[in-house]
Amino acid sequence: MEPLNALVTLANFVLIPATAYGAQLALGALGVTLIYGILRFSNFAHGDTMAFGTMGVILPTWAMQSAGIGLGPLPTALLALPIGIAVAAALVLGTDRLVYRFYRRKRAAPVIFVIASLGVMFVYNGLTRFVIGPDDQQFADGERFLMTARDFRTLTGLDEGLALKTTQVITIVVAVIVVIALFWFLNRTRTGKSMRAYSDNEDLALLSGINPERVVVITWLIVAGLATVAGTLYGLDKTFKPFTYFQLLLPIFAAAIVGGLGSPLGAIAGGFVIAFAEITITYPLKKVLGYALPEALEPDGLVQLLSTDYKFAVSFVILLIVLLIKPTGLFAGKSV
Amino acid sequence: MSTIRPRDLALFAFVAVLFVGTGLVQSWNVSLTVLNMGLISAIMALGVNMQWGYAGLFNVGVMGFVALGGLGAVLVSMPPVGEAWAAGGLRVVGGLLMGAATVVAAIMAWRHLRRFRTLAVLAILVVGFILFRAVFDPGVAAVEAVSPATTGYLGGLGLPIILGWPVGGLLAAGAAWIVGKTALGLRSDYLAIATLGIAEIVIQIMWNEDWLARGVKNVIGLPRPVPYEIDLQSSRAFNEFVTEWGWDPVTASTIAVKLAYAGLFAVVLAVLIWLAQAALASPWGRMMRAIRDNEVAAEAMGKDVTRRHLQVFILGSAVCGLAGAMMTTLDGQLTPSSYQPLRFTFLVWVMVIVGGSGNNWGAVLGGFLIWWLWVQVEPLGALLMQAVTAGMADGSWLKGHLLDAAAHMRLLTMGLILLLVLRFSPRGLIPER
């Protein structure tokens, strides 16, 4: 049973958390990649868009919780998700009107958009802190575990347990649904096709009668949805704190670039690459190897490649290596 | 750039009035504190302006270079910890050399091998990493075990802290070389994200590598380039001079120390401005701007764009590093946990954009003005909130919330200022000419 125990330990501490985290990153990176592909700039305000949208979920969640409305074993936040998406959509559309549209009309250089997005980031960050404060907020409720480590042990008779948090399962299920819906939209619907056409060749798309402002609006709507879903899932799974969301910008960008900026498929792949790299490299593999290897080879140390504190640094080292070797990412994003 | 417009002088006069006003309304101590950080901010803004204003390079890793500057100040000025060196100093240094050798070997293999290139590089990296950890880890453990409450690190060279300023600049320049080699020549977004990443890596190393600079345990009590207040107060000459003017010796001594710092910083700023202006007016400066305005044309004229970009990127980052070392000197301590991108990267960007990108005087003006605002927005915001909530019942939820929220006015205000200036006056208060 030793190899099975090794596998269960690995699944419990690495595979499952990394899959959930990877799904959250992928949803975030999809938003960044869509903005890059269609509006053609790197949106530094994305992490704070996620924070703002999540705040739009948290406040109604609290209201529902105190009113006794809930989903039973599922977190109430899922019920409040549409409200949060609407709030985030209003915010980003308003921002586009007030800030980005001006530069789009002027056909400003992409870097000007990026600097403007820095300003937007500041404002969103300030707004979020203004409303909900800078501290950690709890909004998860419902059943905490789908399966606890002890249940698993009694069920299988193994030494090692496998815990499955509800939020992890929800993350993966919701992410799969969202991604399928997005790809269906981009590949099958007329609007989605016009968006892809606009992304591939702006001039040609304009010639064939695609309304650019409509494409832009729909892009922002999708991005608001993705950002809010990603932010809410992350908040449910871990914790909500405005500053943490701002920091999430780093692994999200890394995921989008590693996958190839502008490529939705790449964003998903990149999200999982970054998440698995972060968690495997900073996880002490001693226990797993202890089960998997014959006793003579059992390691003495923790077999931790890097201390957990280097989580964010890992994503950036990967990013730098990818930039060095394959500047357009794994899925050949837009040329640079 | 030779003529000074009256408008520019008026702007500088306005900023001067802000500082004098702070002195009169609050206190001269506060005003000088703000001024000293304003001087340092102006230097950071000069560094970013070299990169963005001269060359159009978008660096959002200012924080990393500033932090490296602070590290330089510590490494030069703190006394060496002999016991720690004896315990594991050589092992640590040996491990670092081994890590560097691994990277060099991997790069050489990548360049020169034809067959099995990827495999060979991977093998070198894996073996090198295992060796590096085997040598390095015990050394670190030994060093960090030496009285961790007070030292637990290798210490510095015990030299005067002023020497740490250029060293800080050099450290930042080295990091800039690595980033530049990696990301220059890509589209500017990629450079931005790469610099953001390197800043994060630098900060994480400074947080976690206790043997280097005590990590989040902070290095405190750095030596000073100026006298201590307490020494001034006990000096007879100082006391006689002060009482002659009718001042309080305690207040006077704190102000004297701050003035001494301000003098030192002002000298550095003046030299840098002079150098920056000379560089901008030289053929080199014209070439940089030509490259910025039309890369393709400049390249067609035979200019080595990537090389020039690397050059100016390193120069600008070195200036940021210098400013970081000065800041650590002023604080008298290195507190890695206080380095946050919102404060040390994005605020500097607001300074450059608001002041006027491409114009050194603009960057300096932006540095003073925005730093003053950054400090004063909070009290002003609190005043505003008190005015807004004056009519509300005491103890109501909204009133308390609004009063608390005043603390977060800063980010909002800075973001709005950046957006408004970028939209309505993209060339800044003192535009390039």
Detailed description of the structure:
The complex is a heterodimer of chains A (336) and B (433). Chain A has 336 residues and is mainly α. Chain A has 13 helices and 2 strands. The longest helix of chain A is centred in the N-terminal third of the chain and has 38 residues, at 2-39. Chain A starts with a helix and ends in an 11-residue tail after the last helix. Chain B is mostly helical and 433 residues long. Chain B is built from 18 helices and 2 strands. Chain B has helices at residues 6-25, 28-54, 62-77, 82-112, 117-145, 164-183, 188-208, 210-213, 229-234, 236-245, 249-281, 283-293, 295-300, 305-331, 341-355, 360-389, 397-405, 409-424; strands at 219-220, 333-334. Chain B has a two-stranded antiparallel sheet with strand order 1-2. In chain B, 44% of the residues are buried.
The strand count of chain B comes to: 2
Number of helices of chain B: 18
Strand order of the largest sheet of chain B: 1-2
Relative strand content of chain B: under 5%
What summary fits the major beta sheet of chain A? 2 strands, antiparallel
Taken from the alpha-carbon principal axes, the silhouette of chain A is: globular
- The separation of the N and C termini of chain B measures 7 Å
Biggest sheet record of chain B: 2 strands, antiparallel
Question: What's the short story on this structure?
Answer:
Chain A has 336 residues and is mostly helical. Chain A has helices spanning 2-39, 46-67, 77-106, 110-132, 149-156, 166-188, 190-200, 202-207, 212-237, 242-259, 264-282, 286-292, 311-325; strands at 145-147, 164-165.
List the helices and strands and how they pair.
The complex is a heterodimer of chains A (336) and B (433).
Chain A: H1 2-39, H2 46-67, H3 77-106, H4 110-132, E1 145-147, H5 149-156, E2 164-165, H6 166-188, H7 190-200, H8 202-207, H9 212-237, H10 242-259, H11 264-282, H12 286-292, H13 311-325
Antiparallel strand pairs in A: 1-2
Chain B: H1 6-25, H2 28-54, H3 62-77, H4 82-112, H5 117-145, H6 164-183, H7 188-208, H8 210-213, E1 219-220, H9 229-234, H10 236-245, H11 249-281, H12 283-293, H13 295-300, H14 305-331, E2 333-334, H15 341-355, H16 360-389, H17 397-405, H18 409-424
Antiparallel strand pairs in B: 1-2
Helix pairs in contact in B: 1-2, 1-16, 2-11, 2-14, 2-15, 2-16, 3-6, 3-7, 3-14, 4-5, 6-7, 6-14, 11-12, 15-16, 15-18, 16-18
